[in-house]
Amino acid sequence: MKISKYNNRKNVSGDVLRALRIKANLSQADVAKELQLLGIGLTRKEISKIENGDRLVQDFELFAFAKIFDVSADLFNSTNL
User: Fold this and answer.
1) Is 10 exposed, middle or buried (0-12, 13-18, 19+ CB in 10 A)?
2) Is residue 61 scored above 60 in pLDDT?
3) Domains of the chain listed by start with CATH number
4) Which of helix, strand or coil describes residue 4?
5) CB of 75 within 8 A of CB of 13?
6) Would you call 38 exposed, middle or buried from its count of C-beta atoms within 10 A (0-12, 13-18, 19+)?
């Protein structure tokens, strides 16, 4: 059986991403620009969907988020910052 949602969300990392983004004083558009510099084409709208739990996150996207915020990718599996 394939599970595509957990607690009615498509990812568990969106809240962590939002918290890191706000802490770094970056907009979703800023994060999208940083991702593009790393060769990952996500839009502000897609980042919003990730933060809201409405979009699955690829592993390479998590690693890029970790690089942008200079944190371990393991942090995105955590509910505590």
Assistant:
1) middle
2) yes
3) 14-72 (1.10.260.40)
4) coil
5) no
6) middle
Q: Give pLDDT, residue 31.
A: 98
Section 13-25 average pLDDT: 95
Centroid of chain to Cα 37: 16
Residue in 63, 36, 70, 68 with CA at minimum distance from that of residue 13:
63
Task: Write the single-letter amino acid at 37.
Answer: L
What's the 3-state SS for 25-74?
A: CCCHHHHHHHHHHCCCCCCHHHHHHHHCCCCCCCHHHHHHHHHHHCCCHH
What is d(CA 44, CA 48) in angstroms, rounded to the nearest whole number?
Answer: 6
